[in-house]
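Tutorial handout. Part one gives the primary structure; part two gives the three-dimensional structure as tokens.
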Amino acid sequence: MMDKLAIGVDLGGTKIATALVQENGTVLQADKINTNPEDGQEDVLKRIVEQINKLIRTTDRPVSGIGIGSPGFIKYASGMVRHAVNLGWYDVPLTAEIKKRLDCQMPVHLLVDTNASALGELYFGAGKAYKDFIYVSIGTGLGAGVVVNRQLVLGKNGLVGFIGHYALDPMGALCSCGLRDCPEMIVSGPGLVNMVTGKLEAGAQSSYFEYHESIDSHLIIHALQQNDPVAVVVFEQMVDVLADVLASGITWLNPEALIIGGGIGLASLNVLRPLLTQKLKQRLHTYQMEDLEIVPSLLTSSAVGAACLVFHST
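Part two.
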């Protein structure tokens, strides 16, 4: 009997990744396009459905369902995205909107993107080696997923691991989510860009950035790898906040591993891993850090975890 097929959609603030995945984890087809949330909700939905229909047409085998990992506050049972900061969405019935636009009818499942990624790591990625781990994604935003005793932990509303948005300082700078001084304001691609831009405007000297008219997170990571002083200082500030957030999670959960994913997390891993280890050791007892591993995601596509929602539900 042939393995089941599922389509995964990783909906991000910057990219929409899609993949056609077999039940054994083999990725048969994968693609990635820009999200362009500034074009509006309708255009983003249209792009998602076009990518799904394109994958369906690549196979003559039946597809068992579609899994979507979305950023933001969601109600996974009803398929509703309540508030996605990086998309500018409020109360979007995402699964219903996708179903009515598809060329054919099939089940559509929704979960917070980092929870879906944690499930993918558990099934097919770095998480296969552990019973207990925290998946951490650093990209356009910051989020996590938690696995305990090889079970994905969701909580009452599926919001376990929503570490990007809570007020570190209720009197601090306003975040786009409505809270103040949220971790994602620092620990994310946009956070890095804002910090570097602020330092340069304040007079910080950088021979690297002065030759570039625009600054993005890719440029900052490249500057970091070149040991640019502004990039190094900003990155250390980012990791300080990340260590504060993760030290609390490690204290509560005592995981075997932190699995690092997301574009920023993976691109900077050679610098991030030793620096994060150092800063966690400053915050935690030796026994809490004992045998804790920090490892990269091993998934070939960020959409694999979303596809696992289909396998997980059957």
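Part three, for discussion. The CA atoms of residues 205 and 230 lie 7 Å apart. The chain has two domains: 5-119+301-313, 129-296.
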